[in-house]
Amino acid sequence: MRRRGLTVLIGAILVSVMTWQALSMRVAYVGLGPGPTYDALAEYTFKDDDGKKKTVELISADEKYSSKSKGQLRLVTVRIHDDIELARALYYWLSDDYAVVPRELQFPEDKSDEEIAAEQEEMWENSQAAAETAALRELGEEVEVTVTKVDSDSPSKGDLKRDDVITAVDGEEVTSQERLAELLAAAAAKAPGEAVKLTVDRDGKDKKVKVTPEENSQGVAILPGVDVEPKQKDPYGLKVTAEGLNVGGPSAGLIFALAMVDRVSKEDLTGGADIIGTGEIDEDGNVGAIGGIAQKVVAASQQGAKVFLTPADNCAAAKANVPDGLKLIKVSTLDGALKELETLREGGEPTTCLT
After folding, report:
1. Can you tell me the mean pLDDT for 166-179?
2. Which of 101, 99, 103 is nearest to 294 (CA)?
3. CATH of 31-139+235-345 given 2.102.10.10, 3.40.50.450, 1.20.1250.20, 3.30.230.10
4. What is the pTM of this model?
5. Is 68 a catalytic residue?
6. Percent of the chain with pLDDT over 90
7. Average pLDDT over residues 150-171
8. What was the pLDDT predicted at 22?
9. Residue 30: strand pairing partners
10. Among residues 296, 306, 330, 339, which one is catalytic?
11. Domain boundaries, the chain
12. Are β-strands 307-311 and 274-277 bridged in parallel, bridged antiparallel, or unpaired?
């Protein structure tokens, strides 16, 4: 009996050791969890490249236009937990607040860490640029897609001229460079090789011209030999200074755009409340879905938020994970988001993901 007891004890110890070793093994997965939030209307202190402390507004404008708000417009992030062991992966998997995904989805093996960081930084900067364009349009400053160069051998030579502003393609309004590409692609797909009708503003007068779009090596419809550039006036001096945040990706676009409009508006768009939200935005002000929505609603709730601006296409996933007490306000455009905030300020009931 004593020998049998010793055998059982040794077996239990071996099983415990093997279990501990298994749970301590690193796995090829990462955990996605709630990350920090940042008020786009606040000031931040960080060290510049020379190691000196700087305090700046995340969203700023020229002093004569700049206004202050009592509330907050907070962007929200997802924190990636990398190099995790099996035990922690199991904990994340069992938790409603986390997601566990293959590591290669976040860190592709064919890309270096530097390349991944550069892509995130590029998306972050593009998000800021699109937000500024959308915000300025909301403030009445339209985008003019302007011809900057026509090559001597371009098929459009003689039809298009430098400084022409392209205002329509086959009667459809051109509101951005992105929209121009979409309209050219649609026209090319409908009638390959056929000319399309452009309306251009030349010296203050509308002029109709015919040009033939082609696809470039990236599959984007272009006017061969023609360079265009979106031009938009910015009388407010809007600027984003975000070096100290260490954040990447496109999902802050909606909050950036709202903060820009708020910064130069006499009215406090927040109504004194703390507003948290997310959403990619394009130059036309359309709000698109983002990743990690389940973790972001948890982060918003942990921050004490009562309302969360949610891209319409994220509503289904957000509802499945929404904590008690957090209202998911559904938005699909910048203009729509501003109207929902107005409804909140007036004490009304905004459109939610449940309606």
Report:
1. 91
2. 99
3. 3.30.230.10
4. 0.81
5. no
6. 42
7. 92
8. 45
9. 101
10. 296
11. 31-139+235-345, 144-231
12. parallel
pLDDT at 23: 46
Amino acid identity, position 59:
I
Question: Which tokens belong to 256?
Answer: 């950036």
Label each residue of the chain as H, E or C: CHHHHHHHHHHHHHHHHHHHHHHHCECCEEEEEEEEEEECCCEEEEECCCCCEEEEECEECCCCCCCCCCCEEEEEEEEEECCCEHHHHHHHHHCCCCEEEEHHHHCCCCCCHHHHHHHHHHHHHHHHHHHHHHHHHHCCCCCEEEEEEECCCCCCECCECCCCEEEEECCEECCCHHHHHHHHHHHHHHCCCCCEEEEEEECCEEEEEEECCEECCCCCEECCCEEEEEECCCCCCCEECCHHHCCCCCCCHHHHHHHHHHHCCCCCCCCCCEEEECCEECCCCEEECCCCHHHHHHHHHHCCCCEEEEEHHHHHHHHCCCCCCCEEEEECEHHHHHHHHHHHHCCCCCCECCC
CATH topology for 144-231 is: Pdz3 Domain (2.30.42)
Nearest to 193 by CA among 215, 171, 178: 215
Whether 306 is catalytic is no
Residue that the structure tokens 């609603």 belong to: 297
Can you tell me the mean pLDDT for 39-49?
Answer: 83
The active-site residue, picked from 156, 251, 301, 330, is: 251
Q: Token pair for residue 337?
A: 């988001």
Q: Please count the residues of the chain.
A: 355
Mean pLDDT for all residues in the chain: 85
> Which pLDDT tens digit goes with each residue over 119-129?
888 888 888 88
